[in-house]
Design brief:
The structure is a single chain. The protein has 345 residues and is an alpha/beta fold. The protein is 40% helix and 24% strand. The chain has helices at 15-37, 40-46, 52-74, 111-125, 150-158, 172-182, 205-214, 258-267, 282-289, 309-325, 332-335; strands at 2-4, 76-89, 91-97, 130-136, 140-147, 190-196, 217-223, 230-231, 233-236, 239-243, 253-254, 272-274, 295-307. A hairpin with a 3-residue loop joins strand 4 (130-136) and strand 5. Helix 7 (205-214) runs parallel beside helix 8 (258-267).
Length: 345
């Protein structure tokens, strides 16, 4: 396992491109000053001993030295000993609707974007629970199997977008069925959160929720959208070019189907929460889930880490010493050696 003990120092790497720009500005300034001194051919003869290559190489070595020093300050470490850790938590699958109707902007900035933001904040608050992700539209797919790797969960969450499922629709029942199959047959709290606008369900989601409840799996629903609804934007190059229309040419209005989501939550022994522009309701649901029986989760964790900063300190010193040994002027003795010089007859 590799990690940085103080990753905040890596942010200083952003200063390196700025130093490169300043170096380029300095070279331009020198060139302009040289032009003002007189004829360029005369100035070039006066500066014949100056080597641009050596000057650039010296700067590159200094940059490498600084970069190595910053890495050393961040202190790269390698895990050296694994130990078994026991912790108590619940298993949670989050199913996110990625149908086109989730592009509607009655919930700002959009239904799908608010869902992603809320789940991301929820992951930040997690400690011992396991999480998995499912995406669904006309079909459901597992985006992330259940895991304690919260970084992986946030990475996969960032990739979720409406066009990732080619079949349009809202197959809530299939998403519940897939979530049920994701859980291990162990005692403890198991829950599924369905985040959707509830429109155009493709199957008997209420029956699936009741089946899950009979197996000890709670189903919670969060309604994304407002009752009055909103049009579905059409995008081109990340710009809204219009709104989706039906076959008669009328603008399609997508509305939240609260009745369906309430029935699903009731059948699944969970609760229903409607999102709004001030809150998405996910925290309220997670607080309810926190009341479930927690189970002991065994996992492996690195207990000891070996420091590796000393290698980068040494590398930084090597680059620094090399830069000091390079003279920006050409070596006059070496310049007299002309291996490929031919004598004229």
């Amino acid at each position: 396992m590799f990690r940085f003990e103080h990753p905040i120092y890596l942010n200083l790497m952003l200063a390196l491109p700025l130093l490169v720009i300043l170096y380029w500005v300095y070279l331009r300034w020198k060139k302009n000053v040289a032009k003002k001194l007189g004829d360029s051919s005369v100035v070039n003869r006066l500066l014949l001993d100056v080597s641009p290559f050596r000057m650039h190489l010296k700067f590159i070595l200094l940059m490498l030295s600084l970069a190595s020093l910053l890495i050393a300050l961040a202190n790269p470490q390698i895990g050296s000993r694994l130990e078994k850790v026991q912790r108590k938590g619940i298993d949670l699958m989050i199913a996110i609707d990625v149908s086109n109707s989730m592009l509607a902007q009655d919930i700002k900035p959009s239904r799908i974007e608010r869902a992603r933001q809320s789940v991301s904040r929820l992951i930040d608050d997690m400690e011992n629970d396991r999480i998995g992700l499912i995406v669904f539209a006309g079909k459901a797919y597992t985006q992330l199997p259940i895991t304690t790797d919260y970084n992986a969960a946030k990475m996969m969450l960032a990739t979720i977008k409406p066009d990732m499922v080619p079949v349009q629709g809202t197959a809530i029942g299939q998403a519940i069925e897939m979530a049920m199959a994701s859980f291990r047959e162990e005692e403890g709290g198991k829950a599924v959160i369905i985040i959707t606008d509830g429109e155009n369900h493709e199957d008997d989601a209420v029956a699936k929720a009741a089946d899950a409840a009979s197996k000890g799996i709670r189903i919670y629903t969060i309604g994304m959208g407002l009752a009055e609804g909103a049009p579905i934007p059409d995008y081109k190059n990340n710009q809204i070019t219009g709104f989706k229309k039906d076959r008669s040419g009328s603008t399609v209005i997508t509305r939240l189907d609260e009745s369906m989501l309430q029935q699903i939550a009731q059948a699944g022994n969970g609760i229903y929460v409607r999102a709004s522009n001030t809150q998405a309701g996910l925290k309220k649901v997670y607080d309810e889930i926190g009341k479930l029986d927690q189970k002991t989760i065994d996992s492996l964790s690195y207990a000891d880490y070996d420091d590796r900063f000393q290698y980068f300190i040494a590398l930084s010193l090597i680059f620094l010493i090399l830069s000091f040994t390079i003279n920006e002027r050409k070596n006059r003795w070496a310049s007299k050696i002309k291996i490929f010089k031919t004598e004229q007859q």
